[in-house]
Amino acid sequence: MAAQSFTPPGFLNERPDCIQEVFLNPGGFHFGGADTRIVTLLGSCVSITLWHPRLRVGGMCHFMLPSRGVIPEGGSYDGRYGDEAMKLFMGHIMRVAAEPEEFQAKLFGGANMFADIAQRREANVGERNIEMGLAQLERYGIPLIAKHLGGESHRKLMLDVWSGDVWLKQQGVSPSEMARARGRK
């Protein structure tokens, strides 16, 4: 599948001469300026991208689970959890003296990577991650302007902070990968 762009309408892409590329592993979080590109790979995990069109700052989180239940005292937040990843975003939003509703959010991921296994559980982790991402954006009043959620395949995601563009490439899981994941050869 070709890469798909989730570009803010009417915005000129002014690529900087020098780019800092950051790769997020699961649980990763990064917030940066207009010289930043953030990349990650998703399965059942979810990424939220936030971007401020006037300040040209933004970030991405890559959370694995909706919540661990209790957030520790003192603000030692863990990006592996959706509710805590949003707390990390809120800290950066405060540091740049902006309001949450001035940012644009895009939400990606939450694939059901092992459909036959997930059917035996109350709800699959991808669905729960999607629900948490949507709930957090609503809680903080951040407008969601694009999303690409669910399904049963991997996604490669790239945010260009200088423009707010988010690029997505989605790949299906091959039958041999599914058989290995199920313990068959």
Please give the share of residues in helix.
10-25%
Q: Tell me the number of helical segments per DSSP (H or I, 4 or more residues long).
A: 4
Classify the oligomer: single chain
Instruction: Output the structural class.
Output: alpha+beta
Task: Give, in spatial order, the strands making up the sheet with the most strands.
Answer: 1-10-9-4-2
In a nutshell, what does this entry contain?
It comes from Uliginosibacterium aquaticum. By secondary structure, the protein is α+β, with helices and mostly antiparallel strands. 22% of the residues lie in helices and 32% in strands.
Overall description:
The structure is a single chain. With about 180 residues, this protein is α+β, with helices and mostly antiparallel strands. The protein has one domain: 60s Ribosomal Protein L30, Chain: A (2-Layer Sandwich), CATH 3.30.1330. Helix content is about 20%, strand content about 30%. The protein has four helices and ten strands; from the N terminus they run ββββββαβααβββα. It has helices spanning about 80-95, 115-120, 125-140, 175-180, and strands at about 5, 20-25, 30, 35-40, 45-50, 55-65, 105-110, 145-150, 155-160, 165-170. The chain has a five-stranded mixed β-sheet with strand order 1-10-9-4-2, with no helix packed on it. A five-stranded mixed β-sheet has the order 3-6-5-7-8, with helices on one face. The radius of gyration is 17 Å and the shape is globular. Residues about 175-185 have low confidence and may be disordered.
